[in-house]
Structure formats: C-alpha cells, structure tokens
Amino acid sequence: MNVICCEADTSIAAVAALMRRHHVGDVVVVEKNAEGLRIPVGIVTDRDILVESISLDIEAKLFTAGDMMTAPLITVQEDASLFDAIKLMRDKKIRRLPVLAQAGTLFGIITADDVINLLASELSLMAAAMVEQPGREQSLRK
Q1: Residue 71 in contact with residue 42, Cβ under 8 Å?
Q2: Integer Cα distance of 41 and 141 in angstroms
Q3: Distances (CA, A) of 85 to 75, 96, 108, 113
Q4: CA 26 to CA 43: how far, in whole Å?
Q5: Cβ(49)–Cβ(15) below 8 Å
Q6: 109: which strand partners?
Q7: Which of 3, 63, 120, 122 is close enough to 12 for a disulfide, judged by CB 3.0 to 4.6 Å?
Q8: How far out from the chain centre does Cα 9 lie?
Q9: What is the pLDDT of residues 19-66, one digit of tens each?
Q10: Contacts for 61 with CB less than 8 Å, ≥ 6 apart
Q11: Is 26 exposed, middle or buried (CB count within 10 Å of its CB: 0-12, 13-18, 19+)?
C-alpha cells in the first residue's frame, strides 16, 4: 500500500480530502531532498484535525499540514523486526509508525490496524493447526 503524503504547506482541507479519498486516518508530511526523494518530517492524523480545529471551533481552513503535524516524527528503519516496531509503538503510545529506507527516505508505514490484522491471521492459523492436530495424530496411530 502506498503511503499518502503531502507537503507542509498543504491546506488541512486538502489533507482531509486525501484521507477521505484514500480511506486512511493519516497523511505523512514530507519534504523533498535534492534528489527529489520524500523525507518524512511529520504526520497529521484525523484525530489531530478534530482535536486541534473542529473541537475548538476554529476554522480548519486557517491551518496547513505544517501547522498541525506531529513532529519530530517517530520512525523505524525498514530492517527492524515487527516486534521492535510494536515495542516502539507501545512505548511511544502511537498507532502509526512510518518506515524509513536506509537512505532516510519514506519506505512505508505500519499501523496498529496492520499489526492487529497480521496477528489475528497468524493466531487463526495456529488455532486451526491445534484443532486439526488430534485428528492427524489419530489417523497416524491406526
């Protein structure tokens, strides 16, 4: 899945439109380096928009992504283990974790939903193996 990105000067209305169009709850704010590669500098979540503008009855159109983004950005390297990423998310109390390539450019993103779906799938496969194991053992011992 592609990471949805914007630049710091993108209006919050445009950020919200990106979230709606791509069915995501976050947009990573990037700057382009000299080679034109995306370097993540912050993140804007749907919650940021709600808490920082709508709940305070402040016009969202007054803000840009740079105004609302959470920075500095907490990230993980692409070669980190899943469990290292989960531990970082837990320790920092975050639900979204951008993944960086070795060059520091944006590689992807891990979300809490991704982790839950992966672990649920793995647990389901393990449960099926446990349910099928007695039948397999019985057929081998006949």
Answers
A1: yes
A2: 61
A3: 9, 10, 13, 13
A4: 7
A5: yes
A6: 98
A7: 63
A8: 21
A9: 999 999 999 999 998 888 889 999 999 999 988 877 777 777 789 999
A10: 11, 12, 13
A11: buried
